[in-house]
Amino acid sequence: MMVGRDPEEHPPAETTSGGAVAAHLGRRIALNTVLNLLGRFVYVVGWALTAPFMLERLGVERFGLWSLITVISGLYLTFDLGLSHALTKFVAEFRASGDRRALRGIFTLGIALFSGLGLVMITLLVLFRTPVVAFFRVGSELRDEAGWALIGAAVVYGLLNAYTSMSSVLSGLQRLDLWNQISILVTLLQLLGIWLVLIWGMGIRGLVVNTGIALAIGTILSWMVVRRLAPEIGIDLSSPSRPLWHRLRSFGAALQIINLGVLIQFQLDKVLFARFVSLGAVASYEFAFRLTSAFWALPSLLLTPLLPAVAHLDALAEKERIARLYRRASRYVLALAFPLAGGMILFAPRLFFVWLGPGHEDAVLAARALAALMGVNILTGVGSTVVRGVGRPGLEAEYHALAMALHVVLSFVLIPRFGFPGGLGALFASGAIGSLYFVWRFHRYLGEPNGRFVIEILAWPLAAAVAAATLAGLLWGTGGPITSRAVAMANLSGASVVFALTAAAVLLIGRYLSLAEIRELVAMIRHGPTAASDERGER
Asked: I need a labelling partner for 527 at 20 to 30 A (CA). Which of 8, 140, 362, 427 fits?
């Protein structure tokens, strides 16, 4: 992420110890970013290959049911009291300050709370599985399978808490490289299991068990790595202190609101589609969400290494360096995100035709709505990471609370009246309003002029996306009829090349990015920061 570094931000390692720390931190961010993308790439490709097979074997109704069951994993990740990001932030902070007792304390609190939350979730679903199945209007032929799957998923996804806690600790140790190696292995095991389970006709029950086995393996491997890297981290019932608990509670409360906001933003409509439309609508939304999330992993995963880095800099009281990191990281994230959003909106019909074949118009519509929303929401990405890293997640929680309230009201009004399109309208309107509010609020906190941000950071990526979509659409006729998968693939390939080259040309001609920065990033990942890079001035 941090390329084109200036001498003040990263002084040569041989001159000051602070320079050595900064140079190491910059390289770690870059390396973690690349490996994060690699891990996500494996997941995306695996899902793309597996989803049509799952649809064929399960059918639309069962696929929609499976999609609803996966909401349970979202519930675990949402109602975690902010522990996942809190562990990352505090592990990075306490490692930087050398506070070993606090390290053991935060880990002990995290494990205890994660375990308690898992027991609560399992108990609730055991008690209320019948009304839950009834709410989703599951057909009589699927009710028994749905009831079993809900309980099984509650137990299996309880392992997700343990898996997530190990991920958070490794992120705090800034070893996303090792975490992604484990994540890739878990993904491959799970994908292999999906194929075997469906070939053997084990259905949704088999899919749930397969997920549990993969998560258990990942948790064990991650814990082994944590113990090797940081043997001082472990369960110590005497180490949690009252001040540490107060910090965790304050930080976690804001993160809990944020997690709930994310769940409402992207999962509420899925639930309401099941209630007011059909399970087929749920399947269409699921396919759209999976596809857009796959592409959106590219800019989103650039953010993950920033949280421990910001927490590290905050522990060293490097406030100005954090502000410069925000501007620099925003440039790279938006340079990738805006063209991706434009490409998704333009190419959605071809993508779905190539992937799933004809007859997925609702999924195309949902993908375009989600891509447009994510194109606006990415404006909050780097800023959200910064406020978490400096211990001010309340700023992010404000915008999620606003978006959540708008989304609930709009969805309950628009979906019963307008169906599937109404839900997509509620999704975009609430998310866009909340995102723009956060940008305004965060820039006031940081002292960043909005006009300067628009001109220097936002304008060129937006221009690149518009120019690329316009030229690709004119040259390749992406709005025309699709006659076969071969024609769609050829059209999509040619248009994608034109789109990418046009976007890159606009960014390079406008000097928003440079080839020197790209070469520096590659060199920094391979060999560490160079003397030449330390002589650079900030753009």
From this structure: 8
Q: By the 8 A CB rule, do 107 and 166 touch?
A: no
Q: State how far the alpha carbon of 99 is from the alpha carbons of 172, 315, 473, in Å.
A: 14, 12, 57
In the DSSP assignment, the letter for residue 458 is I
CB burial of residue 509 (10 Å; 0-12, 13-18, 19+)? exposed
Residue 360 lies in a domain: yes
On the question of pLDDT at 177 being above 80, the answer is no
What residues contact residue 106 under an 8 Å CB cut-off, 6+ apart?
86, 87, 90, 91, 94, 240, 244, 248
Q: Considering the domain boundaries, does residue 334 fall inside one?
A: yes
How many Å separate Cα 92 from the centre of its chain?
A: 20
Burial class (CB in 10 A: 0-12, 13-18, 19+), 137: exposed
Q: Is residue 425 part of a domain?
A: yes
Q: How many C-alpha atoms does 381 have within 13 Å on its Cβ side?
A: 29
* CA nearest neighbour of 110 among 70, 175, 167: 167
| pTM exceeds 0.90 | no
> What does the block give as tokens for 267?
């999962």
Question: Residue 11: inside a domain, yes or no?
Answer: no
Q: How many CA atoms lie within 13 A of 362 on its CB side?
A: 17
Residue 516: which domain range?
Answer: 17-534
Rounded to an integer, what is the distance from CA 169 to the centroid of its chain?
17
pLDDT tens column, 229-288: 888 888 888 888 888 888 888 777 777 777 778 778 887 888 788 888 887 888 888 888
Q: Look up tokens 């609430």; give the residue.
A: 430
